[in-house]
Amino acid sequence: xxxxxxxFRAEVRDWLAAHxxxxxxxxxxxxxxxxxxxxxxxxxxxxxxxxxxxxPRYGGRGASLLEWLVFEEEYHAAAAPVRVGQNGxxxxxxxxxxxxxxxxxGRLLPPMAHADEIWAQAWSEPDxxxxxxxxxxxxxxxxxxWLLSGTKTWSSRAAFADRAFGLxxxxxxxxxxxGLTYLLFDLRADGVTVRPISQLGxxxxxxxxxxxxxxxxxxxxxxxxxxxxxxxxxxxxxxRGLSLRxxxxxxxxxxxxxxxxxxxxxxxxxxxxxRVVDAWIGARSYQLHTLATVGRLQAGEPVDASASLGKVFWxxxxxxxxxxxxDLLGPRAELAGLPESDGRWLRDxxxxxxxxxxxGTNEIQRNVIAQRLLGLPR
Amino acid sequence: xxxxxxxxxxxxAEQDQFxxxxxDLLGPGAPDAARRWAAGDRSPGLALWRxxxxxxxxxxxxxxxxxxxxxxxxxxxxxxxxxxHHALPGPAAESLAAVPVLLAVLGDDALCERWLPGLASGExxxxxxxxxxxxxxxxxxxxxxVLLAGTDAVYEGSPGNRHGSLDGGRWLFELSPGRELVxxxxxxxxxxxxxxxxxxxxxxxxxxAGEALLEQTVRHARQRVQFGxxxxxxxxxxxxxxxxxxxxxxxRPLLYAAAIGLGAADPAAxxxxxxxxxxCADAAHRxxxxxxxxxxxxxxxxxxxxxxxxxxxxxxxxxxxxQAEHRALVLEALTADAESAWS
Lengths: 378, 343
Prior knowledge:
heterodimer, A: alpha+beta, Butyryl-Coa Dehydrogenase, subunit A, domain 1, Butyryl-CoA Dehydrogenase, subunit A, domain 3, 3 domains, B: five-stranded mixed β-sheet, 12 helices
């Protein structure tokens, strides 16, 4: 690794040591917590650390993917706050870089980087979950744009976010995958109703969105009308693969698990000991695999279909790692307000349980692996 | 070292080409050689070993000074992965990795001169035991050099009782110590280096065998029709094979990173070799169980070659240290110092 990257690591580490709040922020799934996380994003942006891999004109530093991995390692090692902007930063932005226009990038990316606009995703519908192509929400042409109608659900961050991106049916006669269009809309526009949904852990991490004739200008169509499925699938592979689940998160959690074992582990419990070892190895494997993926991307090789391998792996690793921590904590594991660092085990455990479900269930991912990577018949 | 400092855990284009040339060499003849080896006829297997020598495989781990290539552990891993892929019989981890490293680290010029050039050229095949972790010497009867590496000294090994293995490509020999060659402390250091490279080589064979099992099983699942459709169209089969693919995919970077770390004398290399062995063995074992289940009754016969790989995986799984031993080694390294878990 170059000396420049070593310097970058030192800069990130020092900055985080000086700025990460000593007290954890209130939950991002409360109105107050959401705004505190927005303020944190702005601190990051002002230090030009919010989007290190983006070009400087949009608020980044033009950092390499390797440097991005370094940033992520340091970010998670410092136990810095959850990225409230992650839907926009890690899902919409890569789509705009690939499929958006220069005008869209110039208009949308800077406020995204500075958390002036925080984005929610609006993929799923009540009857379109794993079967995403069953989308029924529609967009019909109107003067200068489109009118959206229908219901979106399980929309992450929608309870408090500013804008959302999703797929809408623009040509009902064009088959399941045809006739879908990728559109951006304002969550506070006329005709939008947001109903927060309480999750397993009590927070309102996602919401239902009701749309009734919501106007979207032509400028907020990403890609060509009717080309939404292809564009969304490229976003989905970002979500499944490299960008949403950086290895830093698992590496930090696995190192904390080893600490927990050192402190509380029962040496006679060989089963639990093996699970600690396997969780650490799994986290290291994911980190190394990501590095190999970065190598392939830098060599110009495509990695899209293999993203499903990673999605199943990290989501199952995350559950296994946190189940192991809960078992190590024993009867204290259920306590909601454990002192020191322990409070995060319960919160992160609950979050880990969602992993095998969101971003395409692991069942769907296994279908993709079997059919597209192994070549088994449909 | 951070993973970024160690380097990207992947093969180079040259290593891919090297593996492809081994694949072309072994592809047609290896299964038959393995069957004949099991039946006591070593000639086709030894002929393949001579051809491997012609491609330089036997000289990879031998220093240039003694007629070898002084190649990296990563090169050894690439070769052993391909040997595992073809279920090649014979003492691969021993002769291609552990013995040359043992001799080179011992550093006794007379011993090196006596044996390393022959190992490099392929004239000599070697084997060893490193009790208690490696209690038997594989295929000592075809080897010109048999060593017994104890914790106190390295001896010439004198083969005693012979045992057949679950894997017909391995005949196991009890050894008693013969002439003492080198005493501790040099012996202890060489023994631990030999254990590391041997463990890594066996992990590579396991990964290669697991990959071969997945390929054969996918091929079978596409062709075998039941209920009017290929069995590979059933979701129960698809998901099981997807899990096999995931296991192999995420074992590979651990194997390659351990090899690169060993080559760079990374202090964490011993830990990473153990992690690679655990994960490659688990992935290969999962591949073997799925392969047999998806093949069904015909997989449980000698009519297919599948059993060669099933047996090799089960035999190599606890070879060069059991899963429990390696997990204990990893945990010891992780808990020995607070920083280790972060590197």
